[in-house]
Amino acid sequence: MSKQSPTSRSGRFTSGPGEDVARFTESISFDWRLWWHDIHGSLAHAAMLERIGVLTRAELKAIQGGLGQIAAEIEAGTFKWKPELEDVHMNIEAELTKRVPAGAKLHTARSRNDQVALDVRMWLRDEIIEFARELRDLQRALVELGAANASVIIPGYTHVQRAQPVYFAHHLLAYVEMLDRDYGRLLDCFNRVNVCPLGSGAIAGSTLPLDREFVATELAFVDAKGRPLVTQNSMDAVSDRDFAIEFCSLAALVAMHLSRLSEDVILWASSEFNFIKIADAYTTGSSLMPQKKNPDIAELTRGKSGRVYGNLVALLTLLKGLPMTYNRDLQEDKERLFDTVDTVRACARLNAAMLRHTSVNAAVCAAAASDSALLATDLADYLVRQGMPFRHAHHAVGAAVALAEKLGKPLGDLTAEELASVNAAFGADAKDSFNLGKAMARRNLTGAPGTKEVAKQLARWKKALK
Ligand code: ARG
Predict the structure, then answer these.
(1) Which of 331, 332, 334, 337 for mutating ligand 1's site (highest number of atoms within 8 Å of CB)?
(2) Which domains does the chain possess?
(3) Residue 187 is inside which H or E element, if any?
(4) Residue among 328, 332, 335, 336 whose CB has most ligand 1 atoms within 8 A, to mutate
């Protein structure tokens, strides 16, 4: 374990670290995930070194061949990672140098400080693209479920108390809106991740005439017009992890949104609500109670929001006391970022799949939505249309609710006479307020759960998510 890498600090140090020190300081056990990006970063750096005359054409070819070989072995699972070489960067470079003498020139004007910043940015960029697709697909799954049950009406709730009727699709589209804001934040975050730090060296750039713009362009760090995007301050570039924190912060919002969706799903799937049925494959049984069918995906999604929040706080805390510039503390960023990415991506995928295997108990929803108390506000609006001030109308309908309770019947079952006995402004047509179909047709403000409006919103999202 005390073997020194010829590519590292061998000139300065006489002995290598002890085993427990090596184990404490290594990051290869988790940063091996950056291998693909590390190799592509090196390929671009090497190509640039050849352009500026540091590498000969033959040396570049040899380095390209060696890195290609190593990539193939990593891909095949035959590459041997060595913990004593600390991290992914030194493992790959040491192996390359062993095979290709010119490998010793690869680290010219490069530090692991700008290398790791590069690798993480490249890795996160790819993950963001995948995650954006998965978020879109989750939105699609919500729209599909809403559209497949377009006529289903459920009670909308405030304080988990029945409030007013809404289309089931309207409830689902609320989540589509939330996820759309998340999607926007994700694309915005991409723009700040997509800046190339290579060429910043350890802290102060290099005295060699590097072509940073060439490297950036090679690695697709470019704007919409194809112009290279490179960091503008070498000290900031090697110590900045804002892009990772920014991702973790938007991920925390996604996790919160998915946790709320999960809570709704869990309630709806309970025997008490029984609005939906999740397919067996997306639930689990109990080891003891044979009748149980548990909404574990939703519960775990709700639970996993905790680790996503925790990762965000861990990163903020990690950074807050760091003096400029790179400090080894920064190595602690990766597991938190990896875990966040893995967690939110899995949540998005699994929830989309679960929703695609969820059916709606239309009869149960219809029975719940037929609760005429849900239309008490509509009855008050009726009085407002008769010219009554809303505060008085609210009071009159409250009296009608009390009468219905006294008579032991639903509000909607009060006769026209009984309503008129509460307040003379209730005309013969007052009972029309309890016609659910008409009540839904009347809710046609933009953003309201009206029949036409919800159809319009469903159509809008179907088109947008095509
Ligand atoms: N494994 C390190 C990290 O993850 C790479 C950079 C190490 N730099 C250094 N000067 N020791 O941050």
Answers:
(1) 331
(2) 6-108 (1.10.275.10), 113-251+307-366 (1.20.200.10), 369-464 (1.10.40.30)
(3) helix 168-193
(4) 328
pTM for the model stands at 0.94
Contact residues for 288 (Cβ-Cβ < 8 A; gap 6+): none
pLDDT tier at 1, thresholds 50, 70, 90: very low
Catalytic residue numbers? Answer: 159, 286
Distances (CA, A) of 436 to 166, 189, 228, 426: 10, 44, 59, 18
Q: What is the pLDDT, as a whole number, of residue 3?
A: 38
Return the number of other C-beta atoms located less than 10 Å from residue 398's C-beta: 13
pLDDT tens digits, one per residue of 204-236? 999 999 999 999 999 999 999 999 999 999 999
Express each pLDDT in 158-195 by its tens digit: 999 999 999 999 999 999 999 999 999 999 999 999 99
Atom of ligand 1 lying closest to residue 31 CA = 4
Between CA 75 and CA 95 the distance in angstroms is 15
> Per-residue pLDDT averaged across 32-51, rounded?
98
Q: Is the dihedral of CA 322, 328, 334, 336 positive or negative?
A: negative
